[in-house]
Design goal:
Layout (H helix, E strand, L loop, with lengths): L1 E3 L3 E5 L5 H7 L3 H4 L10 H12 L7 E9 L2 E14 L4 E8 L9 H15 L5 E7 L3 H9 L3 E12 L2 E11 H8 L1
Helix pairs in contact: 1-3
Length: 182
């Protein structure tokens, strides 16, 4: 479990989290920022959780994001490192804050910082990248706050809400991350 100042933590995803995943990944307001195009069914989300422990274990590390509310820990979203390339020491960071009342409060940035630290300190990654839809300004700002540099734009690569949008690519190298930590 990864924790920051006893306010936010990342933990493994459990089968009991299925109800949160179903709620979040069937909310069009949430999924408009994700690569989720079809309604989510319980059987698919359950399979995804099982796959995290088996098939995807070598290429994906996914966590539940929780924040402290009073004395309780409340799940607000998921984040992970995807498409991990162990030879190149590269991974893609992905995140979804599913609880909308927690949007724009810095929780995504804090979770991303924990995840980037984990990538470099525990997994010995050389590079962590991320992409965001051009209209997802919260995600683009989060990438900048964790030290990612804009690496490019893939023009009109995303179809969402009836039109095409740019995909913004960002990344951080281990030496940039180390410099930020000084």
């Amino acid at each position: 479990m990864l924790e920051l100042l006893n306010l936010i933590r990342l933990r493994v995803i459990l089968k009991s989290d299925l109800r949160y995943l179903m709620k979040w990944f069937n909310d069009p307001e949430v999924t408009q920022y994700l690569r989720i195009f079809f309604p989510s069914m319980e059987v698919f989300e359950e399979k995804w959780i099982n796959d995290l422990a088996t098939i995807k274990r070598e290429t994906d590390v996914v966590f539940m994001i929780e924040v402290r509310v009073g004395k309780r820990w409340v799940p607000i979203g998921t984040c992970g490192l995807h498409r991990i390339n162990w030879h190149e020491r590269d991974a893609d960071l992905g995140m979804a804050i599913g609880e909308k009342k927690f949007w724009s409060n810095g929780y995504g940035t804090q979770a991303a910082k924990l995840l980037v630290d984990y990538a470099f300190l525990q997994l010995n990654m050389h590079r962590v990248s991320s992409s965001a839809y051009g209209f997802n300004t919260r995600s683009i700002k989060m990438q900048e706050r964790v030290g990612m540099k804009r690496e490019g734009v893939v023009r009109k690569a995303i179809y969402c809400n009836g039109k095409y949008h740019d995909r913004v690519l960002s990344g951080i190298l281990r030496e940039e991350w180390e410099e930020m930590r000084k």
